[in-house]
Every structure is written in C-alpha cells, then in structure tokens.
Amino acid sequence: MGQKKQRGKEGNAANYTTRNQALIRLQIKLPEFRRLCILKGIHPREPKKKVHGHNKTYYHVKDINFLLHEPLLQKSRDIKAHEKKVKKARAKLDEALADRLKANAPKYSLDHLVRERYPSFIDALRDLDDALTMLHLFATLPADSKHRIPANLVQTARRLSLEWQAYITKTHALRKAFVSVKGIYYQAEVVGQKITWIVPHALSQVLPEDVDYRVMLTFLEFYETFVEFVNFKLYHSLGLKYPPALDTKLEEVAAELAAAVSSLAGETDSPQTGGQLENGAGASGRGEEDSAEGPPEGEKLVALKEKLGVSVAAGGDANGGVEEAGPWGGGEAEEDEGEDEEDEETKACRGLFKGLFFFLAREVPHESLLFLIRAFGGSVSWEGEGAPYPESDERITHQIVDRPTQGHRFLSREYVQPQWVYDSVNNRLLLPTEDYPAGGSLPPHLSPFVDNEAEGYLPEYAEQIQRLRDAARGSLGGVLPLPGGAEEGLEEGAAAKAAAERGEDLAAAAKAAEVAKLEQEYLEDLRKEVAGVPYSATLGGGATEERDEGGAEDEADEGGVSGKVTDGARAEDDDKAMERIMMPRKTKKLYEAMQMGIAAKKAGVDSLKKKRKAAAAGKLNVVKKPRGA
Amino acid sequence: MARQGKRKAGDVREPSNGTTDPESSDEGDLLEGNASDDEGALSDGSEGGLVASSSEDEGALASEEEGSDPESDGEGESDEENEDGEIGEATEELAQAVQDYYLERDAREGEEAENGELVRGQEEVGVSGRGEEEERRGAGEERFGPHVDESDSSEDERPDRNTVGNVPLEWYKDEEHIGYTKHGKKIIKQKRKDELDKFLKQADDPKAWRTLYDEYNDEDIVLSKEEIAMIQRIRQGKIPHAEVNPHEPYVDWFEFEDKGQPLSGAPEPKRRFIPSKWEAKQVVKIVRAIRKGWISFDKKPEAPRVYLLWEDDFRTADKTANGLTYIPPPKPKLPGHEESYNPPLEYLPTEEELNSYDLMYEEDRPKYIPRKFDSLRQVPSYANFVKDKFERCLDLYLSPRIRKKRINIDPESLIPKLPKPKDLQPFPTTLYLEFLGHEGAVRTLATDPSGQWLASGSRDGTVRLWEVQTGRCRKVWSLNTPVKFLSWNPNPDRPLLAVVFGRSVLLMGSGTGNETQSEAAAGLVKLQETATGAADEGAVVRWQKSERAEGLEVVHKHDVAHVSWHHKGDYFASTSPDAVSTAVLVHQLGKQQTQNPFRKNHGRVQRVLFHPTRPFFFVATQTHVRVYNLAKQQLAKKLTAGVNQISSMAIHSGGDNLIIGSYDNKLTWFDMDLSTKPYRTLRYHDSSIEGVAFHRSYPLFASCSDDGSAHVFHGMVYSNLLENPLIVPVKILRGHKVVESEGVLDCAFHPTQPWLFTAGADKSIKLYCN
Fold first, then answer.
1. Among the ranges A476-485, A496-505, B146-155, which has the highest mean pLDDT value?
2. How many helices (H) and strands (E) in chain A?
3. Parts of chain B with a pLDDT under 50
4. Reading across the β-sheet that carries B593-595, which strands appear in turn?
5. What are phi and psi of A454, to 5 degrees?
6. What angle do CA A263, A268, A273 make, to 5 degrees?
7. CA B174 – CA B160 distance, rounded (Å)
8. Among A39, A136, A141, B197, which is least packed, fewest CB within 10 Å?
9. Which among A43, A121, A181 is the nearest to B371, CB-wise?
10. pLDDT class for A242, splitting at 50, 70, 90?
11. Over 90: is that where the pLDDT of A60 sits?
12. CB-based contact, B401 to chain A, within 8 Å
C-alpha cells in the first residue's frame, strides 16, 4: 500500500503559487518582481484547479524557482545597495566619493536572458513582432523627461529599427505593407518566419498619461538587447559587419534609412553621376564591407562566403551600370548565380521595381517609401540634401506626390500617389498608374493580410486586381511590361504608350477568357451529342441529374394524396433536422454555436454585398469620418 | 533697489544735518555709539543715511562741478508737488514731530550735546530755507552726504559744496561767504530774508512745511514723502525703515567669547614637518603593485556588447530553460480591409449603423470604426498607438497563458454518421389516405390485429370504424361523451374494442371478423352474475350493461385515461390518474372481475402496459416507470425517465426496449437489458409528445406531437446483446394542422405494413405509407 497522499503536496496546490507567495519567496517587492518577470518572460499560468482562490494570479512554481536563481535578482539588490551608498555620500557632501562610486556602479547585461528565452534563432524570430513594433514606436517618441523616457534608449531603438530595415532591404525580405489608420503594417519573411510589425505614422505621438511608461521601458530594455542580437545574427549570416557604420553625411540630413542602407548594401543609386552623394562619402560610409578596397577584410568575407556555399566572382568585378553592386563588389550576375536557394517570392520581390527610378516629393512619408521601394529593388531619390539624384534626372520613371496640384510636370515620368507603391507591392504587380493620379481620387487600399476566400467576400477592387494579375500571367507569364524597364534612354511618352499597351493586354486577356468559356461550352455540347442526350434535356440544365437524385422523393410525391405537403426545400430542412436529432447534447451545442458563427459571418458578408450594391447604385450614404473614432 | 534704499536712508539723515550741522561729525559718532543700545533702529537708518542719494541726486552729482542741475531737481520737485495736497494737513504736526524727536534725543544725550546749536538749528527749521531757489536746494541735497565721512561705506563719497570742514560756522558769520568749493572758490551767502518774507513764503509755498534750511551749505532742503513717512515712524518709536525686521533670528556671531581662546599658542609639532612613514609605506605598496601589474592604468578592453548568440543553423530547440513548455504569446490580429486608411466604401458605417452603435452595450460595440481619407497626406497620427502597445505589454506579462487547441473542425463532421434513411426502407414517407368524418379532434385510434380495420375515437363523442384500404367509414358509435382512448383486443378471435370515455371503459364488439368471432365477442360482452360491482356497491368498479352501445361498461369511480390489453386478450388494465390508490385496475374480461393490484401508487400514474410476452407489468408515473414481475408479485425495475411528465409509453415487441414520450418534448429509449437510465434521450419535437408507437414487426417507431408533426424512426434492436439498438430518424411527417395548440394527438402503426396512422386535432386521420 502506498503512502497516504498529503494535502497540498501534489498536483495544482504544489505546482502553482499565487503572486504574493512568490513575492515572499523571492523577497522582493512587486515592482522588482514585475521587472524580472518582464525581462525573463515569465507570465502567470492558469491551473486547472485554483486552490488558493479564483481571483488570484497563479505562477508556476518552476517559474518562480527559475527567478530565484536569476543572477539579475542579486544584481538588482547590489544596484539598490550601491544607490544607497551614492546617496549617502551625496548627503555627506562627499561629491568625490559619490562620483567615484557612481563611476563604478554595478552593471548588468541581458544577453543571457535572450539566450535563455530563445534557445534557437527560429524561436527568436517567432517572437520578434512585438519587439520590432515597440522599437519602431520608441524610435518615433521624444526622449521625454516627464515620462522618464531616456534619450539613449530612444536612440538605440532608432538605430536598431534602421538596422533591421536595412537588413530587410538588403535581403528583399519584405512581403507586404499596409497603410492603416493605426500605422503602417509591414510583413517580412525571414528564414521562413513571417514577421509583422507596425510603424506609427511619421507624426508626433501622443503620450497618454494613463500609461505606465516604466513597464514599457522595461520591455524596451529587453527588446533592444534582443533585437540587437537578432540583427547581429542576421548580419553575420550575410557576412556583414555589425553594427554597420552609418553614413554620417546622410545621417546628418536625416535620411537615416538611406544612410543605413547605403552603408550596409554598398548600394549606390547612381554610381556614374554620383548625384549629390559623392562616391568618396559613400565609400567612407560603407566602411569595411567594401571588400574590394581592403584586401584582408575582403579575404575574410570571401572565405565566409565560400563557407556559405556561394561562388565568388573576382573582387575587382566592376559594379557596372545601374545594376546594384553586391556587398562584395560583385555584380548582379554573381548574385543571381549565387543565390540559387533564393525562393521565387524573393525573386519576385527583388525584381518588382527593378530598373525603376523613383522620386519622392517632400510631402510623402519618406522613410516608409524609401524602405519599400528599395526592398523591392527600385532606386529612389528624394527632395532634399543627400539625395542620390536630383528631381530633374531624366531616368526618373515615377514621381511620388501627394499634392493636389503640381508645379512643373516632367512628361517623361508618371506622377502617382504613394498608395500606388503599397498596392503594387502587395500585389507584386505594377498596377496601372492612371488609377492613382496626383491629386485625384484613389481606388480603395486593401489589406494584404486578408484571406478573401476565408472571409467569403472579395471587394471590387480586389477582383479588378485579380483580373489584371491573371491577364499579366496569361499573356506574359510574369510582370507586366514596364515602361522602359531596362532601357536606358527613355523617350518621352514611352511610359504612356506602355501603359496603353498594358491596357490593351488586359482587354485581350478578358476576351481570351470569354473565348475559352465559349469553347468549353461547345465541347460540352459535342460530348452530349455523342452520348445521345436529347436537346430538350440539355435545355433543362442538369435536370437529369436532379431527377436521378430525387427519384425516391418524386415517387413518394406521386403516391401521396397531395404534393403540396412535401416540397423540396422542406424535405431538405427535414433531412438536416433529422441529422441533428441524433447528436449528443454537447456536440449539438457546439454545432449550433458554429452555425451561429457561420451565420454571423454570412450576415457580415451579406451586409457588405448589400452596401456595395447600394454604393454601385449611388444610394449608399456612408460616414467617412465618424465622430469620436 | 539699492538706489531707493540709499535715498531713503539719506533722507533720514537730512534733518539731523539740517539741524545739527555744526557738529555733524559728532552727530555721526553719537549715532554709531548708539548702535548697540536702544537706538539700534535709528542708528540703522543713520548709518544707511551715510550712503544716501536718489537717482536724481546722482544725476545731479554728475554735473555737480558745474554747479547744480536744475532739470533733475525740477523733476524731483514736480513729483513731490503732486503729493502736497494729501500731506498738507499734517504740516504743523509733522514739523512739530521732527522737532520733538530731536529734542527728546538731545535731552537724553545732554552731556554729549556740547553746544546749544541744536536748539538754534531747530529754531531755524521753522524759518530757514523758505524762498530759496530750487536749484540750490537740489545741490544742497547732494552735497550734504560727504561731510559725514566717518561712514564705513565707501559709496557715499560725495563731494560737499562747502569744504570748510568741521569748524564753527560762526567763524563765517561776518563774511560774505559761508565757505569754499572744492576748487577753492567762495560760496557766497544767500541774501538774508526778513521774517516777513519768510512768513509770506510759508504762507504761499505749499512745500514750506517740509522745507528745512541747511546752515552749513546755506541752502534749503525739501523733505520728500518717504522722508516724512520715516520721520513719522521715528516719532512713533518705530524703526525708520518699514522694511527692516527688528526681530531677525538671532545670530550669535561671537560664540567663542565664553569658550576661551579658539587658537592655540602652542608651537607646531615636529611631526608636521617630517614626511609620514605610513604614507611612504603606502606609496611603496602602490608602486610595487604598479610594477607587478596589479594596478593597471590601461582601460580593460570592453567585451563586445553583441556577439553571435545562436550558433545553430536555424534549428529549433526542444527544451526551455525552466523545463516548462513555452507558450508563445498569441500574435495580434492582422488588420483587415476595414482598418485601411482608404477602405472600400462598403466597409464604412452608414449613419444608421453609427446610431445603432450608440444603443449597443459598450462591450458589444465595434472596437474600431472604419474611416476613410482621400489621400495619405491627410492621415493623422493614431492617438491610441502608445496605449495599444501598452495594453499589449500588459497582456504579455500579466495575462495567464494557456495552450488551447483550436479545433478547426468542419461543423458537418459533428453530425453523427448514420445509415442513410434511403437504405432503411420501408418506412412511411408519404400521405396515402385521409379519413375524414369526425367532427371533433380525433383523440385516439387503433388498428385491429388483422390490419384491415381502424377504429378512432374523437372528442365529438363518436367512435368510428374505418376500412383501412378504402378509407370508408364502416360504422359509427355515438357515445355522446368525448372518447379518450380506445384499444382493440389483441386476440384476433375476439374482435372487441375497449373504449375509454368519462369514467367508463366500454367493451363492445366491433362487428369485424367472421361470424364465430363476432358471436364470441358478443358472448363476452354479456354481463355475468359474477361480475364485480354487480352485487356490492363498495367495489372499486361496476361492470354493467352499456346503454350507449351494445356491450359492457366498466364504470370507475374516477375518470379513466387509458386502457391496456394483455397480449392474450383476456386481461386489460385501466388507468385513472385521479384515483390515488385505485389508479391502476386490472380487469379480467372472461370473469368480469376487477382487482386492484397496488395498494399504493408512487405518484400519479400516467400509463400502464403489459409486457408483450412475459408476465411483467409497466406502470408509468410522471417521472418513473416501475416494472413489476407479476409472477413473483414484486418490483423488478424502476426506470428513471429523466423527464418532467410522461405522456405516453410503448414497448418493443421483443419486450426489452421501451420508449417514453413526455410533455416536455422528450423521447427516451430504454434498453432494459442495459440500464435503468435511458439509452437515448432525444429532443426534437417543438411541443409536447402526445403519443409514441412501436411497429409490431418492422424496426420502426414513431412519435407524434402537438407541433403537428410525427417523426418516424428506424429503431433496430439486435438479438446480439453486445450490440446497442440503432436509432435513426428516417422521416418527419407533417400534414396535420395545429388547432388550439394541439397537433397530432395519437399515432399507430399498421400491424403488418410499414404504415402509420395519425390522429390530428384538425379532425382528420391520416395514413402514411411507404
């Protein structure tokens, strides 16, 4: 006979403790506990039986023991003791001692926590969403003494977010971008992981008072360490130096992303003309990545690249033409050759804006567009200092403007609103620019994150885009012909011509689809004729099948006194009802709940359809900017 | 500030100058001497007075060498003139006050006041200075400062007009000048005015009351408003300066006084002049440490802040540090079209929708209301961004995380896999015949054992006999009382009907069957002498010859609800729920005897049934069914129905399975071999179940309900005990109308065919065939 089990020694009672018990065990106060929990990533758990009461927060005993052995716990005590010493010295007016103490304050680092929480890199990437959103938020916040947001944290956040964006740009890993009212959503795919983050609109942020910034700053502290290590790993995997040396000149003129990107990628938008950015400055900014310049560094990187299984072209390979120069001085050809494992998606992304030259007007969100266009292989310049090429450059194909009126218009380029870039990127397709005229009304901006099929509703513009896509795929097997995509000497009006051509293509594609449908019908008829189905039967449109199926019922109807009692719909309902009769009660409830969900979804879709119909008829009165929203 | 202070202070000093000019230096001494005494306040003023000058005065001072500055003086004057009216009344009083003050003081310091010039000066206060030119006066004001050069302040170094110094003025009494300027020029005396002039001037000049004559400098001095206020304060015995706090916290500057000498006269010890050995040792120690490299002045190279943390080649780890499974935080929902800055029009709310949101509860309201902007330029910053992220942070560290398996199941997969009704035929599917003729709701029906005839009882008080094949009404018995129930004798040789109406059970020959059968039936329904109740009145029932029809009537003491035949057709049991102890009575047709098998019933008895083959008897009360073994005369089983009120009961021909219909819309199937609990409870009717029926030979059962429908089920009972009965709903039969919330009141299967008869409240009987 086994020993009698004692109460509270096993099971939920022994495995879970309340928060207060944990505090007592750890001998710390709640703020310190909160901080530790945030840094260590410990969260409450939900025991099956809440032994100590239902309104309590429960932690797993293992979690608490885990905290108990955390070096940070002791460190925080040391820091507290040290602060007391400094305070004491100050109180005794012993400034010298206080300063000396202060200089030797105990320091701590969080790298062991990153390793602990994310034992593998994939785990780290999975949890990167929140970290990136937070960094991007703090990168836009002011260093505010009132809310105790220190400047160095903000600066680090800014640096890390730029480094991240530079990496994404370099690897063309960006997949989706969506401008919502809440901010700009980006989704990138890194090592097979989809990482989504939100960047607030580039306007000053409201700092609400009912927010505990200490909590956020604790999170930020961890996230900064975390993202820094992730960035290091990512840069390391590319064989790049970390941290990248930023181009000081560009940084000064607040084109920070450009600085980061140019430093990282060694990418020069116009190596021949040089633009305003001198080659020399670019080189200095690029630092050690330029292997062609420093032989030992180059050798190291070459070695690294070999290790990665990448064939290396000669270092002296000139970065020819407008092709972007790889980080090892190799040209485009080498990159294509090397990155065989690069998936289709990345290729599509890299090539989307290839050969296009963009120019950003000053009223469009620079950072977002710069990031987007470069991530999709385009060249971009802007109005202001440090711009790679001026507005008057003849190669510019698209000028992105958001002004209702334009001063001088270059005939050789297209003037589009920023949404064109986002929509094109999301659809991997250069959409017709006529729909996005400067100062004109825009087609709706659709979320790329919606699975339209699961949703059961496809907005009109999505249908339109789908048609365009099909047309493009059908006629050309790829991206639509671009206005002067590869050609250097772009004649005036070529863009318009190309657009017109594309329009024709679309029309042709639609016609082709129609023809195909007719052909299908004809074949069907032929088949029936061969089978000997009478024409009258075919007129019914599948009536034969129905007859086969509902034979029994028909007979029954014939036998009945009156056919009115059972009609088809009723019978169907009855069948369903009968199926449900034999369900156990729990299953029935679940089933009914599911049906309710389905019905609600259907109602939503129906309402959308109804509204769309009304809108098409011009009878829909919507409120564009509801009050209080 | 400083200037103001100076001016005030200087002004205080003036009267004393004016009055005591010959011994002004003495006066200064005197005042300083007083400082530590009771006159501290005054001395403050006078000491300050040494600093003395107003801004105008200083301006004048700058141009002093050329003489006087009329402009600046003029300004000063005009200021004062404005205030004359106010102060005018106090003229005499003030003059008196000034005099009084000095008189008082002189009396106190009598010994020091060596000459009587003070008195003389005072006399002159009243008379002198009137009618003097203002410029001179102004200059005089400036000039009087420096002659109190004992001042410890360096600020008041002002050259005097007169430089004769501290000599008796009477030396110049007979001269035309009163002294010399700095440059050695004579200062010519003013023209003396006679008393009359003085008087007139006093009368004319509004400032005369505050004009003093400075004998030393030979000029008139006009007292300013502040000076007069100060004089008034002095007179009241207050400190002249209003801003001086006489009660400053005491500072003991001379603390050491009673503590002996603070400094030592001892010679410096030698140790102060020779180097410290200990220090030398320390130095040696440090030097040694430096040499050995224990102390290094080189900064340690900092460890790299970031390094390659993950060496893995993108492999996932299967272990966490704390040994618990890692529950990743759920990712936030990705935005849909509605969150776009420029959503499609159909996603935007209409005015009605917006208004409807106001009527909703806070928690039901949509979290986000779509908005549309015409261009990206117009999109404002999102005010809740920080808050949203903060809430996310709170969720991350405060919310308990549970791993929930999201069952992404197809709802259709929840439907149990049952054989298709098509494969379970035959069963009644379609309406074949309608038996019309009753004028009231058809309450009950029964088929005769051969299946040729159908009997039905109605609320119109008639019992009708129908031919099943044709639907022809063969016979009508009019009983004039609503018929509640009827049942055929299961023995085909006894074509008898038991009809329940009111308190009676009527047994009558149905007139079907062949002649011998009819005769046998007629013989059975003849009253015998042995019949219960024929002799004694106290019997539970009375057998009697019926008056309404040709047959026997068993009259109960309470309303009878139901009657049930034994399969042999000799015994039948009646139920009268209202009777408490005689609710169940068993009648023997052959002997026309009645017995009460139960002394006591547990609850209101709803139905009774005989087991089709074995000596078992089922008594259904409202919630339970009790099974009695008639052979052993004991309770065999008690079935718990789990319903509120049993309405009907039917038994499978095998005898092991029982179905129960209830007024709370449930049908329960008991497999008595399995359990006393229901094998299945089905709830599919929308209204109370009125009747249930088993088919005698086909695996079918049916239920009918007040919702106007009858459900037909395939209810297969296997002879293999290991296999549970199979229940499959096969058909829903609709057709009866619901009349006054009554639908189908009874149902019965054809004994040999898979046909179902239903009796409706809409006065019709329907036959459904396969």
1. A496-505
2. 27, 9
3. 1-91, 110-158
4. B562-565, B571-575, B584-588, B593-595
5. -65, -35
6. 140
7. 22
8. B197
9. A181
10. confident
11. yes
12. yes
pLDDT of residue A531: 64
Distance from CA of B380 to the nearest CA of A (A): 8
Q: Indicate the residue of B307, B390, B769 with minimum beta-carbon distance to A232.
A: B307
Res A339: pLDDT: 46
Residues 649-688 of B with CB under 8 A from A: 682, 684
Chain A residues with CB inside 8 Å of B308's CB? 232-233, 236
> What residues form DSSP beta bridges with B433?
B767
User: Which of the residues A557, A564, A578 would you substitute to probe the B interface, choosing the one with the greatest number of B C-beta atoms within 10 Å?
Assistant: A578
* Residue type at position A546: E
**Least confident among A35-44, A416-425, A568-577, B667-676:** A568-577
Contacts of A459 in chain B (CB under 8 A): 337, 344, 346
Measured distance between the N- and C-terminal CA atoms of chain B, rounded to whole angstroms: 120
In a 3-state reduction of DSSP, which class is residue B742? strand
Q: Does A122 touch chain B (CB under 8 A)?
A: yes
Closest CA to A235 of B74, B733, B421, B308: B308
Question: Quick one: three-class SS letters along A357-417?
Answer: EEEECCCCCHHHHHHHHHHCCCEEEECCCCCCCCCCCCCCCEEECCCCCCCCCCCCCEEEC
* Strand partners for B222: B211
Per-residue HEC secondary structure of B76-139 comes to: HHHHHHHCHHHHHHHHHHHHHHHHHHHHHHHHHCCCCCCCCHHHHHHHHHHHCCCCCCHHHHHH
Residues in B 142-171 with any Cβ partner in A closer than 8 A: none
CA B296 from chain centre, in angstroms, equals 62
| B377 → closest Cβ in A38, A402, A455 | A402
* Antiparallel, parallel or unpaired: β A357-360 and A379-382: parallel
- DSSP annotation of B495 reads -
**Chain B 333-372, CB below 8 Å of chain A: which residues?**
334-337, 339-351, 354, 368-369, 371-372
Cα–Cα distance for residue pair B768/B770, rounded to 1 Å: 7
- Helix, strand, or coil (residue A124): helix
Q: Looking at the complex, does the CB of residue A410 fall below 8 Å from at least one CB of chain B? A: no
Cβ neighbours for B426, distance < 8 A, ≥ 6 positions apart = B698, B754, B770
The three-state secondary structure class of B765 is strand
CB contact under 8 A, B387 and A210: yes
Beta-bridge mates of residue B467: B453
Q: Is B192 on the interface with A (CB under 8 A)?
A: no
Instruction: Quote the pLDDT of residue B256.
Output: 65
Taking the CB of residue B257, how many other CB atoms lie within 10 A of it?
8
A203 closest CB neighbour out of B349, B375, B381: B381
Q: Average pLDDT of chain A?
A: 77
pLDDT tens-digit map of B5-60: 333 433 434 443 433 344 443 443 333 333 333 433 333 433 333 333 333 344 33
Q: For residue A207, which residues of chain B lie inside 8 Å, CB to CB?
A: 386
- Whether A209 contacts A251, CB under 8 Å: no
Q: Which residue has the tokens 């004992």?
A: B150
Judge whether A620 is closer than 8 Å to chain B, CB to CB.
Answer: yes
CA-to-CA distance for B347 and B335, rounded, in angstroms?
A: 13
Q: Is B716 on the interface with A (CB under 8 A)?
A: no
Do A179 and B340 contact (CB within 8 A), yes or no?
yes
- State how far the Cα of B332 lies from the Cα of A129, in Å rounded to an integer: 9
Whether residues B430 and A566 touch (CB distance < 8 A) is answered with yes
Q: Which domains does chain B have, with CATH numbers?
A: 2-235 (no CATH), 424-769 (2.130.10.10)
